[in-house]
Amino acid sequence: MFARRWSLAVLAALIAVLPACSGDDADEQDGSLPPARQLVENAANTAADITSTHFVVRVDGNVPGLAVESIDGDLTTEGEGVGAKGTAVITAFGSPAEAGFVLVDDVLYLDTGGGNYQQIPAAQAKMVYDFSAVLDPERGVAKLIRNLQNPETVAAEDVNGTSTYKLTGTASKDAIAGLVPGAKSDADVSLWVEKDGGNQPVKATAMFPGDQGGTVTVTLSEVNEPVTVEPPK
User: Fold this and answer.
1) Which CATH number does the domain housing residue 105 bear?
2) Given Cys at both, which of 80, 145, 170, 202 links 44, Cβ 3.0 to 4.6 Å?
3) Would you say 37 and 165 are in contact if contact means Cβ atoms under 8 Å apart?
4) For residue 26, how many C-alpha atoms fall within 13 Å in the half-sphere facing its CB?
5) Does a structural domain hold residue 215?
């Protein structure tokens, strides 16, 4: 009788636990992860539909063609043209300097201190950073993801409180040229995408080879939330 009760108790415990181990969690517990190619396709399609985002760019080491060390701002493609605002550490004009920036109506304004924004000529504006490329499906994040070579799902990780799958692969210099205009070689890429919601891209890191190589990290958040950009006064 005791053995029968013990067996029933064990069965009840198993029934209670099993639902929690279904779906993606079960895959992770048994050591398997979703196919990389499907995650890449989903993430590329989702990235192509992003019209606004908060974005952070970090540059470590030497990355040819990038005149910034960091960018922290908001970006939108809604309306006419591309709008962006935030702060950046810029190296284009000599020593690194922190500057506020506003991009609106194809005009870039920089404030290197004191709240006085100066208009940057169009020819020099893209030397700072080509903001228009980030959300462009044919040049930016979506292109990088879609053309990721030899992708592999390697882990399930938390990124700033978001549950993600981490993928690795290689990006050709052409696939990454919109985000890193001066790229002279292919890059090793790590990509984090949301587990749910169309596998929206959350973070991407591109590492360039060689002793003079560097790393570029782009993080997206607050995706498709309203962003208003107006010329500085």
Assistant:
1) 2.50.20.20
2) 145
3) no
4) 7
5) yes
pLDDT on residue 6: 36
Domain residue limits at 72: 36-221
Torsion of CA 99, 103, 104, 109, to 10 degrees: 40
The answer as to whether 30 is a domain residue is no
pLDDT category of residue 93 using cuts at 50, 70 and 90: low
Residue 169, φ and ψ in degrees, nearest 5 = 180, -165
- Provide the domain count of the chain: 1
CA 145/CA 203 separation, integer angstroms = 11
Q: Answer yes or no: are the C-beta atoms of 194 and 162 closer than 8 Å.
A: yes
Is 27 inside any structural domain?
no
Task: Extract the tokens encoding 187.
Answer: 């890059």
pLDDT tens per residue across span 145-184: 999 999 999 999 999 999 999 999 999 999 999 888 878 8
Spatial separation of the C-alpha atoms in residues 46 and 221, rounded to whole Å: 13
The residue ranges of DSSP E strands in the chain, in sequence order, are 52-61, 68-76, 83-90, 97-104, 107-111, 118-120, 149-159, 162-171, 187-194, 201-207, 214-221
186-208 tens-digit pLDDT = 999 999 999 988 999 999 999 99
In a domain, 138, yes or no: yes
